[in-house]
Amino acid sequence: MTPFDPLHWPRRKETQRKMSLLFLGIRHGKQLWRNLKPGPGYGSKSSHMRLQRNIFPSIGVIFVHIPKTAGTSLHSYFSQLSDAYGATPRLPELEPYAREIAYKHKMACELKAWIGDELWSRAFKVAFVRNPWDLMVSSYNWWLQKAPTYPHFGAQVEQVQALGSFKSFLASDFGTRMINEVTGSMEDWFQDSGRDIVDYVGKVETIDADLRAIRDLAGLSDGGILLEQLNPTKREGYRSYYDDESREMIRRRFAYIIDRFGYRF
C-alpha cells in the first residue's frame, strides 16, 4: 500500500466512508482510522489533514496535544529539545511510531492503545490545559480566522459565521461539545475512565515552570531551548467576550478542569 497522502483522497463511496472516520496514523503500511463522534456538519476531510508527530524517542516524551493549549509552541519546543539530544534515542522502541504521520489531536487513550501498555508505561507522557474561558474564546476565533484556511472546513465555518455571536457559538454544539473540530472536553485527552494516564498535566498559564518540572521529572536538561509563541489568534482579552450567562455556560461545561486546576474567570 502506498503511504497516506492527505492531498490525494479516495473518491465517491470510499471518500464518504472515510469522512466519518478520524485518521490515526500508518502502521505496517496500513492506514488506521477511528469512528468519530461527529460535531455539527462534520464531514470535512481537512480535519484529517491536521497532522503532526507528537512522539519524541530521543527524549522519551509523548506529547498529548489538547486543542488550543499552546500545542504548536509545545510541539516545536519538544522537537527542538529532541534534536538537541542527538541521534541516540532514550526510548528507541518509540521510533517506528514517531516516524508515522498521525492526527495531531489524538487522545492519550488512543495513543496508548496504538503503542501498547508496556511502551506507554516507559515513556513520559505530557499534556497541558488552559483556562476554559480563555480556551473557548480562542476556539471561536480559530473558527473565524484559521479554519477558513482549510478549504474543506467550509460547511462548518459557514455554520459558525451564521451563529452571529460568541454567545450563540457557546450554546451550539461547537461550544457545548467541541474544541475546534474535535469532540471532547479537556480531561478526555489525558484520562481514561476518569483516571489520568499521563505523567504530567501542566497549565498554559504556568508553562515555563511546568516545562522545568517536566524536564526534572523526565531527567532532561534544558538544551538551551526557549519556548516560542507560535500560531496565535488575534483578538481582545477573553473577559470582554462574556456576560454572566455565558460565563456560567463555561463553568458548567468545564467544571472538572476549573475545580481541579483552580481556574477563575
Could you explain the architecture of this structure?
This protein is of the alpha/beta class. The chain has a domain at about 130-185 and about 230-260. It is built from 13 helices and 10 strands. The protein has helices at about 10-20, 70-85, 95-100, 110-115, 115-120, 130-145, 155-165, 165-170, 175, 185-190, 205-220, 245-255, 255-260, and strands at about 20-25, 30-35, 55, 60-65, 125-130, 180, 180-185, 190, 195, 200-205. The protein has a 4-stranded mixed sheet with strand order 3-4-5-10. A two-stranded antiparallel ribbon has the order 1-2. The longest helix is centred in the middle third of the chain and has 15 residues, at about 130-145.
Short key terms for the protein model shown above:
about 260 residues; alpha/beta; 4-stranded mixed sheet; 13 helices; disordered N terminus
Task: Give the SSE map.
Blueprint lengths: L11 H8 L1 E7 L2 E6 L19 E2 L4 E4 L6 H14 L10 H4 L9 H8 L1 H6 L1 E6 L2 H15 L7 H10 L2 H6 L1 H4 L1 E2 L2 E2 L2 H5 E2 L2 E2 L3 E4 L3 H12 L25 H10 L1 H7 L4
Parallel strand pairs: 4-5, 5-10
Antiparallel strand pairs: 1-2, 3-4, 6-7, 8-9
